[in-house]
Each structure stands twice: as C-alpha cells, then as structure tokens.
Design brief:
globular, about 40% helix, Rossmann fold, alpha/beta, about 325 residues, two-stranded parallel ribbon, about 20% strand, seven-stranded parallel beta sheet
Length: about 325
C-alpha cells in the first residue's frame, strides 16, 4: 500500500506532467501543480488538485514551498524546443537553468525528501558513436536546450554531495502520446498526426533518415513512479534501445490515418541529432523499469487521440 504524500509537480498541466498527475491522483497522493500555462492546459487537469498559476523562476515559488511543505517534487516545467533554444538561448537558460536552480534550492531549504527531474537523453549525448548510449556515454549536447538540461543535472549532483538532497534524473528519449502539443516545434509525432488529419503534407527537416528513440507516455509515467522507490538516486536513461527514423514514423502514421499526402522536405536544422538510442539496462536493473508499449501500438493510440480531438465540437 502506498503511503500518501504531498507532491508538487511543475509543468503539471503540460503533456508529460498532466499524465503523471493523473497517476499520482489515482495513487491517492495530495497533488499540487505549478504551471504558467505557456504550453500546458487547464483541461488536462483532474479534479481535486491544487493549482498555482506561476512559473518556476518566480519568487512566489518559495511561498508555495513554505505553505504546502511538499515531500516530493517532480520537475517537468521546461523550455523543450531545440530550435527555440538556438533562437533565444537566454530565455532557454532563464527557464531551464535559473528556474531549476531556484526549485532545487527551495527543495533543500524546505526539506523535500526527493527531487525527480525530467531530463533529456535525446539532446544530452549529441551525435554519439556508437549510437546506443549508456549513462556513461560522453555528454556532448548540440543545442542550448541540451546544455541547459545537463546543467540542471549538475545542480542536482552538487546538492546531493553538499546537502544530501535525494534526487533522480530521468533522461528521456523522444516522448510521445496523447496531449502532446501538435502546434509547437517539439513533438514530431503529434505534429505529423495533426498535419495528416488536416489534409496537409507532414514536413520533414533533412532527409528523414535521422533516428530517434521514441518512448510512449505511459512508459514515461511508470518510470517516474518507480523513481519514488527507496534507494533510487542518480541518472537513468529512459528509452527503448531502438532508433526509429523520422521517415519510418511518417510512413506508419500515414498507414494508420490512411493519409495519402507525401511528406515535404525542408533543410536540416542546426542542433538536430542524427542518430541515437538509449540503453535502459541500468533502469531495468535498479528500478525494475522497461518499456512496454511498442512503437506501432503507441502510434495507434496517439493517432486515435488526435482523430477524436479533430472530430470533437469546437
């Protein structure tokens, strides 16, 4: 039986955060949400959660910690677009570095038991060789986004050594599934599904042979829940160990959605990784985590969600 805790989820109205909130509520935890709604949506939230409309770099964060005394922090709030980070690295740093540092310091000051950080594996390792990365692979980010997420990890490592703040960093592959924003610059599967359902050509940057490690949202949520276990600390790759090309994703989605529109190609973008997959053996060995949803099953579920969304009354 799970002992109910007070849990703060930043970015809790967003894609990953809202799915995590659903699961935490099911487990009878008291859930608090911090979200500035820059990309999150209130409709994603279940009833019974307490919502604070602010961002992680605002001084009000300290007041929330003082008032609510959370036991656990799940830090999902972030600037997540590689392209946006290249256009405006200062803004990326304000959110992903300064905001994360403020949250970590508040967690130390107010006695948080565990801090669980949504990091990135896809943007952290750069263009690795070999293409399958372990947690020991060199950190060579190609974008300010990847660098800023790495700095967040370094803050956590510092606070573990200096203040004994217990923390876990989950290095995700490319997460996809229902509620992902189809209008942003991140989340190629949501963007493709939305384009195909609208009768438009999906746009591929580069030749489409670049490979990503796509992980379904339900598997990501399960990794977060397992990270709560006693003794789990440090960094973990959360991926499938399988690279799938962007061209392959477009082909499978077109079959599922019965789309006949051929993809259009635009020039490759600075900062985009070419090929990567994440070795998850450490997460399996220490956390008992492994992915359960195949790419075909995950794409089918995601496509069905966006079909229902497109057919819903405005």
């Amino acid at each position: 039986m799970v002992t109910p805790k007070t849990i703060l989820v930043t970015g809790g109205a967003g894609f990953i955060g809202s799915h995590l909130v659903d699961r935490l509520v099911q487990l009878d935890h008291r859930v608090l949400i911090v979200d500035d709604l820059s990309s999150g949506k209130l409709r994603n939230l279940p009833r019974g959660v307490k919502f604070y409309h602010t961002n992680v770099n605002h001084p009000s964060i300290d007041d929330i910690f003082q008032k609510e005394s959370p036991n656990i922090v799940f830090h999902n709030a972030a600037q997540i677009s590689v392209n946006s980070s290249i256009r405006d690295p200062g803004k990326d740093s304000d959110i992903n570095v300064s905001g994360t540092a403020r949250l970590i310091e508040a967690s130390r000051r107010y006695g948080v038991d565990k801090f669980i950080y949504s990091c990135t594996g896809g943007a952290l390792y750069g263009d690795p060789y070999p293409t399958e990365c372990t947690e020991e692979s060199p950190i060579l980010p190609l974008s300010p986004y990847g660098l800023s997420k790495w700095i967040g990890e370094r803050y956590l490592e510092l606070y573990r050594r200096t203040y004994r703040l217990n923390s876990v960093s989950l290095r995700y592959g490319n997460v996809y599934g229902p509620r992902q924003d189809p209008y942003g610059e991140a989340g190629v599967i949501a963007i493709f599904a939305n384009s195909m359902l609208g009768g438009q050509e999906p746009r591929i940057f580069g030749d489409g042979n670049q490979e990503r490690d796509f992980v379904y949202i339900d598997d990501i949520v399960e990794a977060n829940i397992l990270a709560l276990k006693e003794g789990i600390t440090g960094s973990y790759n959360i991926g499938t160990g399988i690279g799938t090309s962007i061209n392959r994703i477009a082909h499978i989605l077109a079959e599922i959605l019965k789309s006949r529109r051929k993809p259009s190609h635009s020039p490759a973008r600075i900062g985009d990784v070419q090929r990567i997959s994440l070795n998850y053996s450490k997460a399996k060995r220490e956390m008992g985590w492994e992915p359960k949803i195949s790419i075909h099953e995950g794409l089918s579920r995601t496509a069905e969600y966006f079909k229902e969304l497109a057919q819903a009354p405005a």
